[in-house]
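User: Fold this; tokens only.

Assistant: Input:
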Amino acid sequence: MNAKGTAFDAALDRLPDGFVEGTFDGQPWGATVRRSTDGRRVWLFARDLRRNDIVSFNLYRTTSGGALLKPCEMSSAKVVDFVIGFRPVAE
């Protein structure tokens, strides 16, 4: 796994389940994270609270230990940048 993938996984693992407010790129955002009970699927939907921007994706963890990132109508790079750069208010 490359360094950016490792940073993405670590940042995603730090996000709590449910709704959390935070900042990304100097702007306030709200994000909701849901994980399946078996831990194999992660869903995230985030919205810029001042502008009209969103980030949304599903991440599927395979039985072989890999992961499949499925962004919702946006680039994978946007998703990765958001997850790595998002800072929950509690941090």
